[in-house]
Structures are given as structure tokens and as C-alpha cells.
């Protein structure tokens, strides 16, 4: 087997050989390990192209994010993850990496990213990067070299005399044969081996072949490089995609446990989150946390979709129509989510490694909460649930003010995945204020990364900060309440009293939570011995003589430590 050589510029210098960058400093001594600080995390996802543009070129950048850190600190989030910001031709919005050790010039420099991480840390905010581990761009030097070198096994190459099928693409170089992509043809899959080999398919190399071993080494080197510049960890893109033909993900789990063991030894404060969509598998496999997503697991993301997806915005043709629980008609159920959450938390507990399930409001690939028929008055109940349930809450940028999915946008940087699946609608510029371009950029509108929501009534941060009754103000209060109240966090106990309309549960034996996502009022008789309590944060919820009455779109968090009838504030 030929050893895959390291290419020039892909191996970082050891930390002691690199000059200190301006504005960077190591993690403070005594900082808690990732397993501890993540328990208190409130995550916030930033799509960097669309968050804040400091240099006026129409595309968001690190300096723009740094200028807006005070918003995040004021809101109360303490962990930010950025969509990929490495050098890229941007055929897939940065998920096609051409250099893992250098940031894309549209965002700034490596020094700018290090400065951003340091500025965030000074505000109590950790910054995580999105690590695209399973594939590169077809313009990455690794791939262009591999396409001309039949002895190179960093990628999956079928050198047979006929098309092997299974999505393989013809070689663009002098090397004969075909390569396997992971997603778009421009994203060749890195070779981490196959769990099952076959003599008639020699491209199915075992996971311990030299090519897969070289790629595992490269992953550690990439993570080492960015952790050395002050970043606090990674969210790993398509984490289940590395080892191919892996029934039960046994070899994938072995790979990620190896990475986790290395992190625990060398960087115990660094977090490793996954885009797997199946926490019952991925967290025992070595990740600190995994997200319920619109895909993943045997049910293809049904757990998340059963909460939010209302068949508008981003819609896959293979999804069966369903009514979400957070729908005004009240035709859904939280049961699918509850069953999945219980199964995941049980699997995580039994594995004994610790870890968390993360619940996002949306993401860059999925419709925002405010999408289609879901109106602004429906959003408070959704946040009341998300920020009081024992998952790690993940707020997608702009959801805290109720930014909407914008329909009808043109394809941009690979945004369109199907006839009803255009991701651009969830990637529009952050709406900061009422100035030009909603305060996102000073560039002419035609130069913006994506158009600003054209609705003249679009919500803004500035207007909602000035309004104590706004969604933004509510989200801030709910985050503060969660952080100040252990019973409402990830470790507090949970007792579901009613899995219907309204959804009623008790956190930590003390706080009664009532959520009614439908437009019609809903009632529930509390079990004997459960009192009404005192409202902590409520709208449209009344408890009287053991009967909970929740107005349409009502929600309530009540402190059972205070006896007596309770009503909405």
C-alpha cells in the first residue's frame, strides 16, 4: 500500500513554531471541561455570509460579527457556531473546502478569526467552527494531486474499466477511473475506508488502510490548528458520512471515539458537536452533543419535523405530509418528539460517556420557525418550550426576532436541493434596524449576498430591543431564567403531565410549564397534588382549582413553590 504524502501547506506548524497572533490568548486555566460547560450552553448559529458586513462588500465577515457580539452577550447566548468559513470556491456555500487551514478572504484573515474568538471569550462566549470532515472541494490541492496520481488514496477512487455506478464521477485529471462524491459532484469524498470490503470492488479499502489513516491524522492536525488559535471546538458536518457502507455505524463510532479520546487528552475543554441527526447513536459514538435535525436516524428527521415543519419553505419530496405540533390548527402531537427524545437520552445514559441532545429552532438547511402560515403570535409558545425543555437550545440567527423564511429567491451557492427545497430563504441578511439593508451592510442592494426580506413590516433587533413585549425581549428573559434556574436546564428532571394541547410538564419538581401552540384555547386538569403556582413568565395561561386553561398560542412557566391559583401576567 502506498503511503499518502502530506502536501505542502496542509500540515500546520507546531504551536511553539507559530508566532502569537494579535488578540489571541489561551483558554484560561481552570476553565471547565466541555462535558461540564456544555450543560449550561445556549447555542447560537451564525451563517457568517449573512450576519453582519463590516467592510461594505455585501457579504458578512468576522469583523461584522465582532461588532455585533454585544447583541449576543445581551441576549444571553454563551456558545456560537459558525457555518464553514474556510477557503472555498463556494459551490455549496463553503461546504466545499479548498484549504482547511486558511479562512476565506470574504470573511477576513486567520488573525481576524482569532481576534473574534478572543473578543467573544471576553464576553463569556465560546466560538465553534464548522468542520467539513467527510469531503473537500474538487479544487482542494489534495484532490487535484490525487486526480493525477493513481498511487494516492486520500479519496475513494474506482480505477476499474467501467463505470462503478453508485454516484461515482469521472476523473477530471490524468488518473483513469472515477471518484466518489459525498454530496454535489464538486465535493469528492475523503477516504475513511469501508466497513465492508469486497474483492470485486477494490476501492472499498478497509478503515485501517493508509489512506484512511492519513485522513484521520489530517483531521487531528486541522483541529489542533484552530484550537491553537483560540477556537473552542467544532460542529462536524455530515459526521455519519465518513466510513462508507457501515451498518449500525460501528466503524464510524470507532473513528469518532478515537477523535474524542484524543480531544479529552489534549484539549479537554474543546467541544465536539455533530451533524448526525441521531443523538442515540452519535453521542455514544464520541460526540459531546448532536442535534435533532430535519434528516437523520431511521425516521429521516421526523422528531424535529414533527415539531416545526409545516410543509412550506424547505420541503423534501420524500417527506410524507404531516401536521406539526406547533401548528395553529392543533392537529399535531408531541408524541413523536417525546419518543425520540426519551430513546436518545436513554441511549446516552446507558453508554455512560455523558452528552446532550440539542434542539434547534432552525438551521441554514431548514425552514425558519416563521415560515408559511406560521405567524409572529405563534412564536412565543415555541420558544417557551424550546428554552425550558432539557435539551441544549440552539437559536438560529434571527429567529430570536422572528425573521421569516423568504420564499421565491434565486438559487445561490448551491441553495436549491429540490423543486420545493430552496435553502436561500433561511439565509437572508440579519435584520438589525430600519436603516438601508436592515443595517446588515452599506453595500448597494444588488451587491448583497442575498436580498433582505422585502416585507416593510419585517422585524428588527433595534425595534424589538425597545419593546419589552417583543419576541426578542421574551427570548432574552427565557434565556436568563434558564441560566438562573437549574431546574429548567439540561440536568433538571422532567415529568410530562399531558402530551397534547396544551403540552404540560414539570421541570425539576418545581416549575410547571404549559404550552398551547394552537389558535383555540386548551384545558387540562392537573393531577391531584399538583398546584397552580406563581407565574414566572406567562401569557394567556390560568390555573384555577386544578384546571389549566391556556388561551390560543398561550404559554406559562409557573413556580410550584408558591401555592394558590395562578393567572397570566
UniProtKB/TrEMBL annotation:
Where do the Glycosyl hydrolase family 13 catalytic domain residues begin and end?
A: 45-447
Q: Which residues form a coiled coil?
A: none
What Gene3D superfamilies does the database record attribute to this sequence? Answer: Glycosidases, Oligo-1,6-glucosidase, Domain 2
Map out region (Disordered) in residue numbers. Answer: 1-32
Pfam families xrefs: Alpha-amylase
Q: Per its UniProt record, what SMART domains does this chain match?
A: Aamy (SM00642)
Top-rank taxon of the source lineage equals Bacteria
Q: What PANTHER family does UniProt report for this protein, alphabetically? A: ALPHA-AMYLASE FAMILY MEMBER (PTHR10357), NEUTRAL AND BASIC AMINO ACID TRANSPORT PROTEIN RBAT (PTHR10357:SF179)
Q: Which family does it belong to?
A: Belongs to the glycosyl hydrolase 13 family.
Q: Per its record, how is this protein called by name? A: Oligo-1,6-glucosidase
Higher taxonomy: Bacteria, Bacillati, Actinomycetota, Actinomycetes, Kitasatosporales
Amino acid at each position: 500500500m502506498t503511503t499518502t504524502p502530506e502536501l505542502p501547506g496542509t500540515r500546520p506548524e507546531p504551536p511553539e513554531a507559530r508566532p502569537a497572533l494579535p488578540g489571541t490568548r489561551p483558554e484560561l486555566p481552570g476553565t471547565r471541561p466541555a462535558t461540564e460547560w456544555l450543560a449550561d450552553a445556549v447555542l447560537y448559529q451564525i451563517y457568517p455570509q449573512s450576519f453582519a458586513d463590516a467592510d461594505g462588500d455585501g457579504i458578512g465577515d468576522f469583523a461584522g460579527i465582532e461588532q455585533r457580539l454585544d447583541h449576543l452577550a445581551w441576549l444571553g447566548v454563551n456558545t456560537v457556531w459558525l457555518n464553514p468559513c474556510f477557503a472555498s470556491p463556494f459551490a455549496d456555500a463553503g461546504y466545499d473546502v479548498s484549504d482547511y487551514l486558511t479562512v476565506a478572504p470574504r470573511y477576513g484573515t486567520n488573525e481576524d478569526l482569532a481576534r473574534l474568538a478572543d473578543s467573544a471569550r471576553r464576553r463569556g462566549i465560546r466560538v465553534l467552527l464548522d468542520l467539513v470532515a467527510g469531503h473537500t472541494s474538487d479544487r482542494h490541492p489534495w484532490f487535484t494531486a490525487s486526480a493525477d496520481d493513481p498511487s494516492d488514496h486520500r479519496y475513494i477512487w474506482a480505477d476499474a474499466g467501467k463505470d462503478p455506478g453508485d454516484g461515482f464521477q469521472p476523473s477530471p485529471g490524468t488518473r483513469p477511473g472515477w471518484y466518489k462524491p459525498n454530496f454535489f459532484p464538486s465535493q469528492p469524498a475523503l477516504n475513511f475506508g469501508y466497513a465492508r470490503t469486497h474483492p470485486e470492488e477494490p476501492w472499498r479499502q478497509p478503515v485501517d488502510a493508509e489512506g484512511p489513516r492519513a485522513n484521520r491524522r489530517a483531521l487531528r492536525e486541522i483541529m489542533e490548528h484552530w484550537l491553537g488559535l483560540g477556537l473552542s471546538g467544532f460542529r462536524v458536518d455530515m459526521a455519519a458520512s465518513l466510513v462508507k457502507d457501515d451498518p449500525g455505524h460501528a466503524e464510524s463510532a470507532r473513528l469518532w471515539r478515537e477523535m474524542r479520546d484524543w480531544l479529552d487528552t489534549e484539549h479537554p475543554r474543546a467541544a465536539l458537536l455533530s451533524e448526525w441527526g441521531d443523538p442515540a447513536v452519535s453521542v455514544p459514538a464520541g460526540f459531546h452533543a448532536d442535534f435533532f435535525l430535519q434528516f437523520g436516524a431511521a425516521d429521516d428527521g421526523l422528531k424535529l419535523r414533527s415539531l416545526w415543519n409545516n410543509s412550506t419553505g424547505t420541503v423534501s419530496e420524500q417527506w410524507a405530509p404531516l401536521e406539526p405540533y406547533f401548528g395553529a390548527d392543533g392537529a399535531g402531537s408531541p408524541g413523536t418528539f417525546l419518543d425520540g427524545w426519551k430513546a436518545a437520552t436513554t441511549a446516552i445514559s446507558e453508554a455512560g460517556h455523558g452528552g446532550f441532545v440539542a434542539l434547534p429552532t432552525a438551521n441554514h438547511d431548514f425552514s425558519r420557525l416563521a415560515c408559511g402560515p406560521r405567524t409572529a403570535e405563534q412564536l412565543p409558545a415555541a420558544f417557551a418550550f424550546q428554552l425550558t425543555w432539557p435539551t441544549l437550545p440552539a437559536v438560529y440567527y434571527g429567529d430570536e426576532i422572528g425573521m421569516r423564511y423568504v420564499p421565491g429567491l434565486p438559487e445561490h451557492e448551491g441553495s436549491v436541493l429540490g423543486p420545493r427545497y430552496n435553502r436561500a430563504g433561511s439565509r437572508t441578511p440579519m435584520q438589525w434596524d430600519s436603516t438601508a439593508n436592515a443595517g446588515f451592510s452599506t453595500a448597494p442592494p444588488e451587491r448583497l449576498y442575498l436580498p433582505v426580506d422585502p416585507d416593510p413590516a419585517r422585524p428588527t433587533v433595534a425595534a424589538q430591543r425597545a419593546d419589552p413585549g417583543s419576541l426578542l425581549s421574551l427570548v432574552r428573559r427565557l434565556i436568563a431564567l434558564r441560566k438562573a434556574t437549574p431546574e429548567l436546564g439540561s440536568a433538571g428532571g422532567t415529568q410530562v403531565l399531558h402530551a397534547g394541547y396544551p403540552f404540560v410538564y414539570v421541570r425539576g419538581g418545581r416549575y410547571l410549564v404549559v404550552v398551547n401552540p394552537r389558535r383555540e384555547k386548551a384545558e387540562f386538569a392537573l393531577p391531584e397534588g399538583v398546584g397552580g403556582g406563581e407565574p414566572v413568565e406567562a401569557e394567556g395561561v390560568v390555573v384555577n382549582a386544578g384546571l389549566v386553561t391556556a388561551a390560543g398560542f398561550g404559554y406559562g412557566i409557573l413556580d410550584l413553590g408558591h401555592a394558590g391559583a395562578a393567572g397570566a401576567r
